Amino acid sequence: MNEDEKESETPTSYHYVTDPEKCYKIQEKYGWELLGYEEVGGDILKVKCIYEGETQFPSYFPEDD
Questions:
Q1: Of the chain's two ends, which shows fewer C-beta atoms within 10 Å, N or C?
Q2: Residue 2 pLDDT > 70, yes or no?
């Protein structure tokens, strides 16, 4: 892979859910761009959602000052 190919790659983030519909709900709630999903066959978390860029769920805990 050359430098141009590395720069053109879009960073992605992954979050695991119980069904594909949850990928779309997360996209809507947090405004993340869903690139797709893969079924991974886990016992509980069966789907890997793939989002564009770096994603992180917000912290709902108050920050210590």
A1: C
A2: no
- CB-based contact 23:49 (threshold 8 Å): yes
* 59 vs 33: CA distance, rounded Å: 20
Average pLDDT over residues 34-51: 96
Order of strands across the sheet that contains 47-52: 12-17, 47-52, 34-39
Q: Which amino acid, 63?
A: E
**Percentage of residues in the chain having pLDDT higher than 70:** 86
